[in-house]
Amino acid sequence: DQHLTIRASGNVGIGTADPDSNLEIFGTGTQLKLSNNADDSAAFAVGTNGDLTITTVDAAASAANFTVVADGAVDIDANAGSLSLDGSTGINIGTETDVAIDMNSSTLDIDASGAITIDGTAAIGITSTSTDTTIKSTGARVVLSGSSGSDSVLVQSDMEILGSLHGGSPLKVNDDIALTGSARFKEQSAPNAGQN
Fold first, then answer.
1. What does DSSP say about strands 40-46 and 52-58: parallel, antiparallel, or unpaired?
2. How much is the pLDDT for 166?
3. Which 8-state DSSP code applies to residue 48?
4. 3-class state of residue 155 by DSSP
């Protein structure tokens, strides 16, 4: 079997006699392992479909973090599939500048079995330039709240409540709602008799 090949072009092959890059490691299972000592390491493995698995190991403390430090942008492009982020204790996005999620011509779905919280020290805006923006909850209420002692919810343009303000899908106000400019509440269904 061919173990190590150095071609006249300078290409180096491990496990292959015809390397087509500066370094090619050919084999099944783990192709490359980088070790700090006998117990701490990172391994790279390429599967049959070209999928890449990077495995970090800290045998003593299970603290083998994976860190990317870039002097420029970091671009992760899931060209033909989905991008999944899974953290057992949460997913944190920390930055000194704005965080932008640009879906181009697709849809962004946020699905959680628990609560979804959007918290900011400045204003939080949900905008759409061409279609309506919909906030929808199935089987539960949608709650908009602000700080006590000031206008809790500030509405600066039309707000449409899809449902009845007086019937099965009530609008419940626990604090102040401020309407400015042309803002108004608009309900889809007719008011029920005996409204409060």
1. antiparallel
2. 46
3. T
4. strand
Cβ 30 vs Cβ 53: under 8 Å:
no
Burial class (CB in 10 A: 0-12, 13-18, 19+), 19: buried
Q: How far apart are CA 143 and CA 135, in angstroms?
A: 10
- 90-109 b/e (C-beta count within 10 Å ≥ 16 → b): eeeeeeeeeeeeeeeeeeee
Specify the amino acid at residue 174: N
pLDDT digits (tens, 9 = 90+) for 55-87: 999 999 989 999 988 898 888 887 777 778 777
Sequential DSSP letters for 100-122: ----TTS------SS------SS
Angle at 91 between CA 86 and CA 93, to 5 degrees: 135
CA distances 137 to 78, 128, 131, 147, Å, are 29, 19, 19, 23
Beta carbons of 176 and 183 less than 8 angstroms apart: no
- Strand, helix or coil at 93? coil
Average pLDDT of the residues in 167-171: 51
**In this structure, what token pair is assigned to residue 115?**
């609560």
Give the separation between CA 71 and CA 82, rounded to whole angstroms: 26
